[in-house]
């Protein structure tokens, strides 16, 4: 039975991915920023699918958090087969009007947090069976977006991390890919009014927002043996937004 670690698993894409992998029979280590929500998710999935699910909480910007998660994986399973680096934060703001704290937080979580998580998991992944990593990037990190330059830059760092790690870790048998979601119906879009939501839908070729479950399906594919010759790819899950 495969073992997967998912960061940012208490909501949105991370929670949907945890559900999909548990459904497929993976044992899980789940991370959330706060302990209550991720523990609830862990209990739910363990009860529903009969897999072993352990949870840990903390700020992913702190490298001690991902170190603790890897220790949980080792203590409970002695190996790690799959890693989903999903924890992230979002903030929009025009250049010249974005606060210093916001800039620092975006990079601390999205860029440095992803790097810490991947780095701390590498040794245990090397003990896994057909190990694979998927990071959550964003279409803003690959194509840019006005009013989101700093967020886009933090996600562009994830793209660079993915491609470089794929080259570095490929010889060790570890595949590394990323998904780049478009406009997905999660709480990150809750700040949009009806006009803003309609604008996002109109700019998407498929004429609707995506769902967290649709992104989770792509993540599950990239982790699976069906994608065994796929590495270093940034897979857009955007309904044709970037066509």
Question: What key attributes describe this structure?
Answer:
243 residues, 47% helix, 14% strand, seven-stranded parallel β-sheet, oxidoreductase activity, acting on the CH-OH group of donors, NAD or NADP as acceptor, alpha/beta, Rossmann fold, globular
Radius of gyration: 17 Å
Shape, please? Answer: globular
Distance between the termini: 39 Å
Number of helices, counting only DSSP H or I runs of 4 residues or more: 8
Beta-sheet strand percentage?
5-15%
Structural class: alpha/beta
Helix content: 40-55%
> CATH superfamily, called what?
NAD(P)-binding Rossmann-like Domain
H and E string = EHEHEHEHEHHEHHE
Mean pLDDT: 95
- What is the tally of beta strands? 7
Spatially, the strands of the biggest sheet line up as: 3-2-1-4-5-6-7
Q: State the major sheet.
A: 7 strands, parallel
**Count of separate structural domains:** 1
CATH hierarchy: architecture? 3-Layer(aba) Sandwich
CATH topology: Rossmann fold
CATH class: Alpha Beta
Low-confidence stretches: none
Domain Ketoreductase: 2-182
Family: Belongs to the short-chain dehydrogenases/reductases (SDR) family.
GO molecular function, one term: oxidoreductase activity, acting on the CH-OH group of donors, NAD or NADP as acceptor
InterPro entries: KR_dom, NAD(P)-bd_dom_sf, Sc_DH/Rdtase_CS, SDR_fam
Task: Explain how this protein is built.
- The protein has 243 residues and is of the alpha/beta class.
- It has one domain (3-237): Rossmann fold, CATH 3.40.50.720.
- 47% of the residues lie in helices and 14% in strands.
- The protein has 8 helices and 7 strands, in the order E-H-E-H-E-H-E-H-E-H-H-E-H-H-E.
- A 7-stranded parallel β-sheet has the order 3-2-1-4-5-6-7, with helices on both faces.
- Helix 1 (12-23) links the parallel strand 1 (3-6) and strand 2.
- It starts with a strand and ends in a 6-residue tail after the last strand.
- 46% of the residues are buried.
- The model has no long low-confidence stretch (mean pLDDT 95).
